[in-house]
Prior knowledge:
By secondary structure, the protein is mainly beta. Helix content is 13%, strand content 44%. It contains four helices and 22 strands. It starts with 16 loop residues before the first helix and ends in a 10-residue tail after the last strand. The model is unreliable at 1-35 and 360-367 (pLDDT under 50).
Amino acid sequence: MLRIYPRRFPGWRAVPAATLAVTMMTRCGGSPSGPGGESPIVSAVTPSDGPFIGGTSIHISGTNFAAGAGVTVGGVPATDVVVESSSSLTAKTGPSAPGPAEVAVTVSGRTGRLPGAFTYLAVSGEPPVIASIVARGARPNEPLNFADTGEEITVTATVADPDTPSEQLVFQWTADTGTFTDSGATVKWRAPSNASTPATITLSLSVSDNTGNSATSSTTISLHDSVKEIGNLARDFLLDFSDSTKPAAFVVRNFTKSPRCERERDDEFSQIDENRRLYRITSSSVGAPKVNLQFASQPCSYFPRNGDACAAVPSTWDSVCVTADPACTPGRSDGIDYVTAVYEETQWRLCASYFQSRGTARPSFIR
């Protein structure tokens, strides 16, 4: 308890204790609301301009900010105010007439102002700009703008507009086939489950802003039934090999010529050419391929070769010699032919082949 001990001197008069306590608090810099009662100070605003229609996200720096702060820009209440700390907050501008505007922050009835801190820009009349459209699947290492039948991929557009905030732009997506879900700059597109492949599908976008201007753009998707396409390539390769009248150049026509697999293709060509010199295949059986997609995430399990896909094809050949060369060992070879495939330039191509016999020995003509 505060006790007052008066001293008597000329002109002295008694002062009530309550009055003295308030006087002492005021002189010490306090207030009934505590030290947090100081007015906020606005020192900087970024960005410093935006369209008159509002919707610009701004960052305000200063001091003495607190939870529950209100913000006005040009006298118009801002939305989405988030106080990050006592010196930082974010907000979104409302609409206002073009020109410089005061930014004000109010905390507990006290207001800090920074005149001309933000400038509302007049309508430019320019349409939206669609900078890019990117389509991407969810599988690791999956190529851009690629989809398998029935697959859902994510399509993202990067769009800018001088007059309209991005969240107020109107997006309209269309496609040759397949279906879109969601709306806005990022959507999902599901490829049709049944389609003739390979095929090129066009995804189109129209974007409209608040001024009535619009822009259009598109991107193309390379649509595949990869398991079927790779299986067909592998099986056709082995069926062609089984016909001894077909030259090596024809048999390897679906192998890539890219540096990625150039050595493997050359080896395959040489081995088939040697086979034609030594053997004639009299009968064969090529079974149904089993295909695994991996997009080069790991080597094919049968052999240390990287590939975007691996195919295993049961195969059997019977052969006779067409030369007296002792290198010719005729007979039956029964096993699995493993084939790797790579995806390049929107199509599947073969890369390498390796035959694994079911027995302990295999004729030399099998790769």
